[in-house]
Amino acid sequence: MTLRNRTFVAAGVALAAFGIMGVIVLAQYAATAVTSMALQGALAPAVDTSADLSLEQAKASGDLADYIMLQRPESLDSYRQTIGRATTLLEDLRRSLAGEPALSELATTALTAQRAWVKADAEPSISLMENGRRIRAMKQTNSPEAWATYDAMVAASNRLHDELNATRNAAADALSGFTRTLGITLVVVGVLVLLGFVLFLMGLHLWVLVPLSLLRDDLTRATRTEKHTTPIRAPGPPEIQEVARDAEELRRSLVAEIDAAESAREGLMQDAPLVAAMQSELAVTSVPEVPGFELAGYAQSAEGVVAGDWWDAIARPDGSLALVVADVSGHGPQAGITALRIRAVLRSALREGADLDVAMSRAADAVADDDHFATAIIISLNRVTGTITWCNAGHHPAITVTRDKEAVLCEPTGPLISYLGGEWGVRTRFFSTGDVVVAFTDGLVESRNADGDELEAAAVGTFIRGMDGPVRENPAELITRLLTQVRHRAADWRRDDVTVIAAYRQH
């Protein structure tokens, strides 16, 4: 299953989970609503019954008074029926409110108060009337005790009615409040779920699908372009970046293998033993370790395996680091011989501590009888003085890029090296911690794009300034990225030897 489909399945499962949660919440709401409605359904008749109770008790008191005052037997019958109904109502209330202890206790209290009134007023008064003692019965029904028990009965019945009504209203208010709260909660949860789902899809698109699409496009271009020179970017989250970096390493290895194969094939056309010996002599087998500086270099010939370009790094007696980049005219074994001669002279002079202009003059003397000429730049980096000093014999300017990404060119200070000789000046500027210097041959900057435009040194400076700090701190990675960008731009790569050297000041 593709990553896209897996993600959508996961999103569907999450959405289903939210749906199930919503169903559970709604079910809980329904259960609560049913319970509250049941409570209201039980209390509503009880409230009506308590209201009827008060009416029955008042009617019973009126029938009793009518019987005593007017001696009407039908009033006595009405009293007995009315007080019986009141008693029945109270008994029914007690049974229906058995699940509500507080209300059931009030019903019991009301029943007790009614019985007390009957015992204190109604029964004695009726007994006196039946014995013909009407005056005494009137006094009995108007006695303080009779009125007190009547008032207590009325108060107990009213309290029962009020509590029933208050409880019913409270249940209705609770249900209404719960309904509102639940409704708002469901709306908020629904909005959050929808928003989360939308954000999830946006994040999936921006952080996974788009980087994967970019990586796929880069891989496609790197695979289909000639010699696989298209660099592979590292977009998106760390996992995709790691895959992209691995792919870029694979592409670089493939390009290096292709270059080596082409060089080896062309080298077969030259004198193999001589080529091997010259190649070994021009190669930098070990880089001197000078405290405070990180160094890397690269050289690739245009014809076979012998280049007219070369670079060198020499530790000088004063503790400084000397860098040399030179380009001998022509290609092949003859240019390689001239390169070996100049390289030997410059290395000897710099190792013994000669000034840069003196070393350049000795190199010119070494090719006085040679048909080839050369351009060269010698750079001295001194950590103690914090300076960079250079002598440039008609070579492309080296580029220094400061920690603040300011680019400065190391311009020529004299003519190229040839049998004509000449004089060379020396220039110096500050070279602080975090600065990097890059020197190269014309094979790097004279490559042309599809429109026929050369790269030029200023564009190299722009490439270096566009690199992040950690890349500039790693000269080997800086050179690799620089070559990748230049080669991707070039339509005629390998038209000339390419040599690049970079040095970074650590402290």
List its traits.
507 residues; alpha+beta; Four Helix Bundle (Hemerythrin (Met), subunit A); Phosphatase 2c, domain 1; 2 domains; 5-stranded antiparallel beta sheet; 13 helices; 62% helix
What structural category characterises the helix and strand content? alpha+beta
Strands side by side in the biggest sheet: 1-10-9-6-7
CATH superfamily of the largest domain: PPM-type phosphatase domain
Strand residue content: 5-15%
Count of DSSP-assigned helices:
13
How many domains? The number is 2
CATH class of the largest domain: Alpha Beta
Commentary on this structure:
By secondary structure, this protein is an alpha+beta fold. It has two domains: 193 residues, Four Helix Bundle (Hemerythrin (Met), subunit A), CATH 1.20.120.1730; 256 residues, PPM-type phosphatase domain (Phosphatase 2c, domain 1, 4-Layer Sandwich). The chain has 13 helices and ten strands. The chain has a five-stranded antiparallel sheet. Strands 2-3-4-5-8 form a five-stranded antiparallel sheet, covered by helices on one side. A hairpin with a 5-residue loop joins strand 6 and strand 7. The longest helix has 81 residues. The chain is rod-shaped, with a radius of gyration of 53 Å.
Secondary-structure map with pairings?
Layout (H helix, E strand, L loop, with lengths): L2 H68 L2 H24 L4 H30 L3 H8 L2 H81 L13 H30 L4 H11 L10 E8 L8 E7 L5 E8 L3 H20 L4 H11 L7 E9 L4 E7 L4 E4 L5 E4 L16 E4 L5 E5 L1 H4 L11 H9 L3 H4 L2 H15 L8 E8 L2
Antiparallel strand pairs: 1-10, 2-3, 3-4, 4-5, 5-8, 6-7, 6-9, 9-10
Give a quick rundown of the structure.
By secondary structure, the protein is an alpha+beta fold.
